[in-house]
Amino acid sequence: MTDIQQFSSLNDALRNMFGAEVKASNRVSGGDINDAYELILTTGERGFMKSNMRSDASFFVAEAEGLAAIARTNAIGTPRVLGYGTDSGKAFLLLQFVTGKSRVSGYWENFGRQLAKMHMAETKEYVTGGVYGFNSDNYIGHSRQINTPHNDWIGFFRDCRLDVQFHMAEKYFDPAERKQINRLLERLDTLLIEPEHPSLLHGDLWSGNFMTGDDGKAWLIDPAVYVGHAEADIAMTELFGGFSETFYAAYREVAPMQAGYADRRDLYNLYQLLNHLNMFGGSYLSSVRRIIRRYV
């Protein structure tokens, strides 16, 4: 991540980037993992800062890498990464402050087309030694996300997505359910298909992880990026209520879905639901069990 600067203190970062110091800070609500602040600087400029314990610095490195990867596709907006570092026992990430202008006409159509363009972008720079995965592990929420490169999508999704989460959630399943899980993993290649081309994915694309940017269009935030099947991103958009129908229609105009997507959608979202089960507890168990029973 040579294009993103690391700093030994917040003051060093602000002096380097803005020639300024913090005049005031305002707590920003909305995050459930990190503290977030609007920084008002002595120059009158504003910045956005996320902060957490120093031991969580790797979260911010991963987020910076993910935002930078999305930006390099030149397909869709993201807040500009300004820098990251540690200061007095805390880790921080500095981002462009987004004013959030009114949405442009055709907001959802633009969003669908831009996401499709991102999914069609070249991915070779993001994975060394394979086709699917990412050059480093990162995070999905506060769970570590394993991105070991694979040459096949189904093997990657089995090994680095479902199998990892099932092991983390082992305490929730009885011996009979564990046999069902093993059968599901063994027959995954009969349930999923390889993509027509690899895609850079946001990785955690629900309604809380996009915002209206300074151009009035949708910008992506809080990524859990990796290279995979575009269907996994689209499935996630449908997990908690879905996006506008005009979004999906515009997306399919640019990047038509492979036949049978609806039959695979729940398998992709099984990963997300398992992660929620592991992060937040048993309220997600019934949904996980339902999907397991469907596919075994």
Notes on the protein architecture:
With 296 residues, this protein is an alpha+beta fold. It contains nine helices and twelve strands. Strands 1-5-6-4-3-2 form a six-stranded mixed beta sheet, sandwiched between helices. A two-stranded antiparallel ribbon has the order 7-8. The protein has a two-stranded antiparallel ribbon with strand order 9-12. Helix 4 packs parallel to helix 8, helix 5 crosses helix 9 and helix 8 runs antiparallel to helix 9. The radius of gyration is 20 Å and the shape is globular.
Outline:
Helix content is 40%, strand content 19%.
The stretches of 5 or more residues where confidence is low (pLDDT under 50) are none
- Helix-strand pattern: EHEEEHEEHEEHHEEEEHHHH
The value of Rg in angstroms is 20 Å
Which class do the helix and strand fractions yield? alpha+beta
Task: Please state the overall shape, judged from the principal axes of the Cα atoms.
Answer: globular
Average of per-residue pLDDT values: 94
Give the strand line-up of the largest sheet.
Answer: 1-5-6-4-3-2
The total count of strands amounts to 12
Percent of residues in β-strands: 15-25%
Summed up, the helix count is 9
Main beta sheet: 6 strands, mixed
Distance between the termini: 42 Å
Helix content: 25-40%
